[in-house]
Every structure is written in C-alpha cells, then in structure tokens.
Amino acid sequence: MRRRVDESVASKRNEEKGVKNKVQVQTRSSWWVWVKRALIALCTLYVTTPFVLRLFPSVMQYLVYKHAVTYFVDLSRPSDLGLNHTVNMYLTSEEGVTLGVWLTVPEQKWKESQGKGLEWYEQSLGDGSPVFIYFHGNTGNRAAPHRVGVANVLSSLGYHAVVIDYRGFGDSTGEPTQDGLTTDALYLYHWVRARSKDSPVFIWGHSLGTAVSSGIAVILQEKGNPVDAVILEGAFTAGKLQKGQPHPFTWYYWRFPYIQYYFSLDSIEANKLELSNVENLKKMRTPLMILHSKDDHMAPFWMAEELYNTAKSAMKSEEKVQLVAFDGSHGYLHNGLYRDPALPNYIREFVQSVAK
C-alpha cells in the first residue's frame, strides 16, 4: 500500500516537473522569438534606410534638422525650467511662419521682472546691458538643458539672452530649410536691434547654429549693420560638401559599411545643405571667440583650430580672434561647455575686449 502511495507521489512530482520544464521551454522559446523579431527589424531598418534616402532625398531634411525630436515641456512656461525672469513670445519672420522665442533679462532684474509683460521685457533690451542672441543646434528646441544652461550663464553675468526656435523647431511653425533658418535669424537680429538702443548685441551659435551665426554676420557686415561680436561653440568647418564626403550631421551613420554611398550629393543638394563656416570666416571682420571641447565627438577639435587659423588670417589680427579650448577630461563633448566654471570669465573678458 505504501509503495503505491510513493509511486503515486513520485508520478505526481514527475508530472509537475514535466509541466514546469515545458513552461520554461515555452518561456525561452517566446523570448527567443522576440529577440529574432527585433534583430530582423533592425536589419530591415539598416537595409531600407539607405535606399529610402537614395530614392527620396527630401528625407535628409529630417536627419539633418532633427526638429521632430522634442522635449515634453510647455514652452510657453519657461519658469517651469527655472527661468523665472524670462518671457515667452511669438514673432512672425514671414507670412505663415511664427517663431517661439524666450527673452531672459539679467539676473539682477529678477525681482523687478515679476509680473511684468512683454512690453517691459522689450524695453529692458535698451538698458545698456549686452544682449546675446542664441542660435541652437539641429536637435530639439529651446528647452534643451544645455540651452537653458547657456541662458542662465548669460543672465548671471548681467546680460540679456534671446533664444529662438527656428521654423519647424519647438512650437515654431513651418519646415526648416537653410534659407528659412537664415531668414528667421536675420529677422530676430533686426527685431533685437530695433529695441536694444545702444546696448551691444552679440550672436552665439552652437553646432548647426554656428553656420547660421557666421552666415548672418557676413550678411549684416555687407549691409553696413554689423553685429558687435560672434561666439561659435562646437563649430563645424565643412563648406560645400565634396563627392564622397559624409555630412557632419549624419555622423552616427559613418561607422556603417557602404552607408556613405547613399548619403549622396543628390540627397544633400536637394535640401541646399551647406555648412559654410570656413567661407564665412574668410569674409567676416567681426570680433570672434571660438569655444570648443577637445573631446567633442561631433565636431573634432581640429575643426576649431582650422576655423581659428582661417579667421586670424582673414582679419590679419590675433586680438580680434580667440580660441578657448576645454580639456577633454571634463567630458563636455558637444553640448556640455555651459557647465564649465571658467566659462563665465571667458565670456566676461570677451565682452570687455569688444567694448574697448
């Protein structure tokens, strides 16, 4: 009798063990199915992307101007990001294009600014304090941490900071193009100049914004309305791209075999993508400061050196051009220079040198 009970218990245990093993096998099988699906999806994406770019050059617009990458924040409320002395406004650069802009006043005006409207902020631009217009890079919007960081640095120094989202970026309407970005930048510059009175106006460009900045600096110079000075942060050298040369803003594709063939001149020229910092600096006579981290992973440091040498040669002066290099050990890469404790001093000294 006991043997039958033992055999029954053993049989039951074997059945349970068999069920458990079957469940484990099914779980492993299900997990492997999802892994295979993910690998197939990645391979499909890798294979099809180049052909899409080849067949539809306009897709390049969304790779260069990553305006579809957003930060989930209410851009009409800069105070949510700690910018308590900032007003949000919307300007119309041309018919059908509305631009989202933040205007941050100097930190010492924090209490005075509370409860004030747009008119007060506009009038404050003429208080004699330097005004910085900031043109950002090709991803996201004006709420990105490093852009808020730059506005805070400038405000702490007693300067105004005007930060724009180009057309198609953030809550600005329209679609970005090189000509469109130039139009937006020039419009904002003239808008600021009309209100700044005798306050000096500086342009600060980062990444893609360096090409925008140097470009309008040359245009304004040629029209007899030059900007007081320019700062280029994380700048690229590339002018019109040569055959076989990869576009800087597709850097994450460079490592893939044969991918450069598909980033053809047809794709690039379809969007008139020209990064003309080198050509612009050959013409520019505006005081210039170049900020660059030695560990910049998107714009290698040699680019900053080439731009510095180009500008110095064009201006025939070492006093009007400065190159400030940040050690790579800090890990600032392409976007982190605003965190450097020495940055405020560099900016202050540059502003003072321009005022002399």
Secondary structure topology:
Blueprint: H1 2-55, H2 60-64, E1 86-94, E2 97-104, H3 110-113, H4 118-124, E3 131-135, H5 145-156, E4 160-164, H6 178-196, E5 201-206, H7 208-222, E6 229-233, H8 259-262, H9 265-269, H10 277-283, E7 288-293, H11 301-315, E8 321-326, H12 343-355
Parallel strand pairs: 3-4, 3-5, 5-6, 6-7, 7-8
Antiparallel strand pairs: 1-2, 2-4
Helix pairs in contact: 6-7, 7-10, 10-11
GO cellular component, one term: endoplasmic reticulum membrane
Domain AB hydrolase-1: 130-255
Protein name: AB hydrolase-1 domain-containing protein
Compact overview of the structure:
Keywords: Membrane, Transmembrane, Transmembrane helix. The protein has twelve helices and eight strands.
Helix and strand content put the structural class at alpha/beta
What is the typical, i.e. mean, pLDDT? 83
What global shape is seen?
globular
What's the multimeric state? Answer: single chain
Question: Uncertain regions: pLDDT < 50 for 5+ in a row?
Answer: 2-7, 239-247, 249-258, 261-272
Topology order in helix (H) and strand (E) letters: HHEEHHEHEHEHEHHHEHEH
Please state how the strands of the largest beta sheet are arranged side by side: 1-2-4-3-5-6-7-8
Organism: Tachysurus vachellii
Keywords: Membrane, Transmembrane, Transmembrane helix
Pfam families: Abhydrolase_1
Domain AB hydrolase-1: 130-255
List its traits.
alpha/beta; 8 strands; 356 residues
Can you describe what's shown?
It is a single chain. The protein is α/β, with parallel strands linked by helices and 356 residues long. It has helices at residues 2-55, 60-64, 110-113, 118-124, 145-156, 178-196, 208-222, 259-262, 265-269, 277-283, 301-315, 343-355, and strands spanning 86-94, 97-104, 131-135, 160-164, 201-206, 229-233, 288-293, 321-326. Mean pLDDT is 83; it is low at 2-7, 239-247, 249-258 and 261-272. The longest helix is centred in the first third of the chain and has 54 residues, at 2-55. The chain starts with a helix and ends with a helix. Strands 1-2-4-3-5-6-7-8 form an eight-stranded mixed sheet, with helices on both faces. This is AB hydrolase-1 domain-containing protein. Keywords: Membrane, Transmembrane, Transmembrane helix. GO terms for molecular function: monoacylglycerol lipase activity; phosphatidylcholine lysophospholipase activity. Residues 130-255 form the AB hydrolase-1 domain. InterPro entries: AB_hydrolase_1, AB_hydrolase_fold.
